[in-house]
Amino acid sequence: MREPTFERVFVKWKRNFVAELENGVIVRAYFTDGVVEEKVETETAEILKERLTDYFSAKPVDFSEFRVVYPTRFAERVLREVRKIPYGAVETYSSLAGRLSTSPRAVGVALRMNLVPVIVPCHRVVAKGGLGGFSSGVEVKKLLLEMESKVSQETL
DNA sequence: GTTTAGCTGCACT
DNA sequence: AGTGCAGCTAAAC
């Protein structure tokens, strides 16, 4: 058995962002005000750092090449669908629910379980009559959406 | 126009 | 089997 590798990517932003990898698979990501030490060894982690740096410098980035963990079978179904939402676009809980033949409430439950925000763009899912929730705080959700909509405006 | 009751599907105990 | 949600809708104030 190969030795398990653990790596960590750190990107500075309004709220700093951390992504952690095991064996080249992203297992966790979170926002923090603190600073954590980076540990980048593989090419996968290097590319991820590049993409994240671009993303937080307000560039449109696609994260679909990266492997991530899904907490449950159901969450995987929902989150895979969420990953298809393109940069700058938003979709509502209910339209996702319709496509997956489930309820908007259940979609919310699945999104709450997402371990890797930004890389799985759960912030692009909003409520029909408002913003909806966000596990790392709705303020961050608002910032991400504002940045993305601004960037996709400029890219016209 | 705003608030509220009831429904929902799934995970966790 | 029962509880609690990152929502929605229609019915009531």
TrEMBL record:
InterPro entries: MethylDNA_cys_MeTrfase_AS, MethylDNA_cys_MeTrfase_DNA-bd, MethylDNA_cys_MeTrfase_DNAb, WH-like_DNA-bd_sf
Domain Methylated-DNA-[protein]-cysteine S-methyltransferase DNA binding: 74-149
Class of the enzyme per the UniProt entry, highest EC level: transferase
Gene3D superfamilies, per the entry: Winged helix-like DNA-binding domain superfamily/Winged helix DNA-binding domain
GO MF: methylated-DNA-[protein]-cysteine S-methyltransferase activity
Annotated CDD domains: ATase
Highest taxon in the source lineage: Archaea
A Gene Ontology BP annotation from the UniProt entry: methylation
Enzyme Commission code: 2.1.1.63
Residue stretches spanning the membrane: none
Keywords: DNA damage, DNA repair, Methyltransferase, Transferase
UniProt xrefs under PROSITE patterns: MGMT
Reaction it catalyzes: a 4-O-methyl-thymidine in DNA + L-cysteinyl-[protein] = a thymidine in DNA + S-methyl-L-cysteinyl-[protein]; a 6-O-methyl-2'-deoxyguanosine in DNA + L-cysteinyl-[protein] = S-methyl-L-cysteinyl-[protein] + a 2'-deoxyguanosine in DNA
Name this protein carries in UniProt: O-6-methylguanine DNA methyltransferase
Species annotation: Geoglobus ahangari
